[in-house]
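A quick aside before the break. I want you to see a complete sequence-to-structure record at least once, exactly as it would be stored in a machine-readable document. Don't worry about memorizing anything.
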Amino acid sequence: MRILVTDGMDKSAIAKLQEMGHEVVEQFYEPDQLGAALKDFDACVVRSKTKVRANHIDIAKEGKLKLIIRGGVGVDNIDVKYAEECGLTVRNTPGASSQSVAELAMGHMFACARYISIAGHSMREGKWEKKTYGKGIELQGKTLGIIGFGRIGQHLAAMAKGIGMDVIAYSRTKRPEVEAATGVPYVELDELLAKADFISLHSPAATSGPIINADTIAKMKDGVCIINTSRGNNIDDDALLAALESGKVRAAGLDVYPEEPATNAALYGHAMVSCTPHIGAATKEAQKRIGAEVVEIIKNF
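That is the input. The structure line, written in tokens, reads:
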């Protein structure tokens, strides 16, 4: 097979594919060039930067393309239904980055509780603001509400329980076997919003409007902390910023944004926002696992 890798992949995985006899080309294409490029490949591996839309598929389906792989969990950057209607196969690597994303969410929780981001920034400005940032809170004994209880949410729940947090979860699909295995009870969304001290989002991209908006924020505890390592459009930026400024929301930890690179400087520049540039799956371990899953998908295909 001739395989296009547009957004990078672990070198050991590329070497393995080459050992298997495949030709691997690493190259990013701008949107106006992508469709024509895909015609010349049997398979394409993308991360989050490359968007494979219907107009690209319309061109590519006339060529060799048979398989599209998303190296990661979400496939909202691929028009999956249309691709499948056109006879293409779409796969992803849902389990490879779960631990990495969950650990980053946990890191943002600590940053929100203890001012880690802004306190470190103030020291780099030559300040010593011990009194200002000496008003942190502990995670132990607090309630974590997880919205979206798939692999990542379950990994986060295990870590949170390990440091003494109470954990509850909301999911559109409730699986009794998961509830039993994790010891995390499912609750309705309004109950989670009312009870949680920390809320972490792990849902697919919202299709009917942001999950966190002015209405849902109003149902939360005062001083809640909100973490988002899922998809940027799951939060209404303006509503979150207003809640941060009013104090309704104590702090937010953000790794994803409605537009990337992020453009809302008022939000990601807020003193009580711990922010990272969409690096949830960006660990050496996760990249190796993603590469190994991609190799296995191609081998089986």
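Two observations worth writing down. The mean pLDDT is 96. Residues 2-94+283-300 form a domain with the Rossmann fold fold (CATH 3.40.50.720). We'll return to this after the break.
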